[in-house]
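Exercise 7.
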Amino acid sequence: MSETARLGLPLVQAAQAQKHVTVNGAFERIDALAQLVLQSRGVVTPPLAAGEGEVYAVPAGAVNGWAGHADRLAVWLNGGWDFLDPQAGWRAWIADEGVVALFDGVDWIGGAEAVSPGGAAFRHRIVETDHAVAPGAASTTAALIPAGSLVYGVTGRVLSDLGGTAASFRIGIGGLSDDRYGSGIGTQAGAWFRGLTSSPLAYYADTALTLTGEGGEVGGGAVRIAVHLAELTLPRA
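Solution. The predicted structure, written as tokens, is:
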């Protein structure tokens, strides 16, 4: 056997010359795979200027130096790409998505806490945005809550003063429950809120959040909003 079974580390052979080359190669692979960080799982064209030890999950349709290596890990080592096979159960931080993903032997599943043999997953994730508040009585975000999700709660922080005549604001679902995730929230930078649902609340359509001024209108500013949710994904066909 010339490599280890799980990580594919090169082994020193009996009476081998220049043993340091093999040992250093093993160290380089360990350094790349321990506390695994994937720069991306969606890039199909190898970057021209990868950093030493950077790792990418190669997607289907990859070209150039990654062609023929779909579903493998591409590691930039010593000026070239080294390819390794991920093992079921590995976890990695996906840098360009800001999410932890679990490899189930077929796919990298972001936010997965449990995965069935057929690929169905129970996923936790956070949808976050910096919302530019429109002046007026209320300001509505883009659709932050995805259809088919279970929302545990919404948190946020005022990034810049909202101004206007409102003494405070509330946040929720406009026209339904506009204070579901908080009320009496300060309008000055640094104010924060943490709105919990008493039990995870199901949303069946993409849904926006609405900020409503209390005692007046908001004048602008920005609020960072994070929706904490779970999703049930389908098994593979």
